[in-house]
Amino acid sequence: MGYGGYLTLLNGSPNDWTVSGTSSYQMDTWKWPTVKAGTSERVYVEWGQKGSQKDDAGEAYYNIANTNGKFAVKGKKPSDFMLTITLDDHATKQSPKGSKIDLGFRHDQSVHWLMSTDEAGDWWSNSGDTVDWMHQSLGSIGNRTLKQICMPGSHDAGMSKFDAGTIGATFANSQTQYLNIYDQLVAGSRYFDLRPVLSNGQWKAGHYSKVEGVGIGGNGLLISDVVKQVNDFTAKYKELVIINVSHTFDTDNDYKDLTQDQWNKLFDVLKGLNSRYTVKAPGKTDFTTKVLDDFIKDTASVFVVIQTPGGILLGDYADQGFFGPDNFPFYDNYAESNNADKMQKDQIAKLQSERNLVADAAQRKDKFHIFSWTLTQAPEDVLNPEKAVMNLASSVYDALFVEAFNAFTPEVFPNVLYVDALGIRDKPIVFPYEKVQTVSTNYDIRHLAIAVNNAKAGRNAYITQTK
């Protein structure tokens, strides 16, 4: 057997990609399929083991049907394994004609090439600078409601570090994110699951659960650091940032729910968020029905929704950029499984059951949908570093680009691609398990959201004609 891995070809356009020719030398596997419009293909490639691997090479040439566009996939190993896209007779908003985009290579795993077209016919790819991807996309998604837009999202967003927690809590079973909030924003995340707790008199992000009334878990970033990192980002980029505040505890007082006075003090800390979206007397207005232009046409916006427990009131804070559950209704139902296949089938089935974006109001199902592409540790996983939360996340990363994308349709797609370890694709917790290892950052999930907005939502006449 040779040395193999995968290339995902994600075609987010209305044109098939057809093979015009291939050639290879000493490659054990180098076979390339047609990639149908609006679909994704995972292609296996394998370098040979005979002779000098430095001579191994392959080329596959693709035509973009009904256009003059062409690109090529090239594999070579001058000093390391590498898959490269060359835009021979094609260009995207991020890469001019003739560009060469090195994708790297991952043994037994995937690298991804994503190209999609928006309503204007402009091509997008996962190369170049799209940090402010929402603002760059306003021409096509600015007049869509939040219920009609897809974005990456961060589960337990504040847990990008592990601070002291309860007995049994470790960075392996408590830390859910590799990147801090600012870097998650750079990687494309726009929906943040923030879970503040009071710990040693300080407001921190927490990852806790209650088992028979006893709190188990640990702490992450200071909430003040979360505020600063969001502010640092919105000072540079006119993007929408949605922060969903929930799962609050007073860990200094037997993990009790926060009192009204404590909530008010937390609101005062969160008031440090600049660019908060504010509305006087919002009442029960559903802001997921507002279009993106309402939030970021001329400025950044930070939308803070508070999952207030019974008896807790927003009071005057409702006029200061804090909204209740009625103002941002959403569907969020995770699989609660450590099995990848079960989780994927669960989330796709729920998506297909709960979403139907069609013009007929009687048939329409369009509640803002959280697509929880997350694995949950089983009890036997908690003390097993190999089954660390972020390792589990990396194990289902590649499937987002094929199994999930191919399940989406113009009428059925999620609003949030909700993940742990956003922005990475390789296991960061490996033997000897003394600390989180350094791994490279990957921004493909940002481009996946763009492709969903272009190739799925952008092909829905009800959405594109909605003003």
Indicate the radius of gyration in whole angstroms: 23 Å
Spans with pLDDT under 50 lasting ≥5 residues? Answer: none
Instruction: Find the CATH topology of the largest domain.
Output: TIM Barrel
**What is the number of E strands?**
22
Mean pLDDT over the full residue set: 95
In what order do the strands lie side by side in the largest sheet?
19-18-16-12-11-22-21-20
Question: How far do the termini sit from each other?
Answer: 56 Å
Specify the CATH class of the largest domain: Alpha Beta
Please indicate the percent range of residues in DSSP E strands (runs of 2 or more): 25-35%
User: Helical region count?
Assistant: 12
Percentage of helical residues? 10-25%
Q: What is the fourth-level CATH superfamily of the largest domain?
A: Phosphatidylinositol (PI) phosphodiesterase
Largest sheet: 8 strands, parallel
Number of domains: 2
InterPro entries: PI-PLC_domain, PLC-like_Pdiesterase_TIM-brl
Protein name: PLC-like phosphodiesterase
GO biological process, one term: lipid metabolic process
GO molecular function, one term: phosphoric diester hydrolase activity
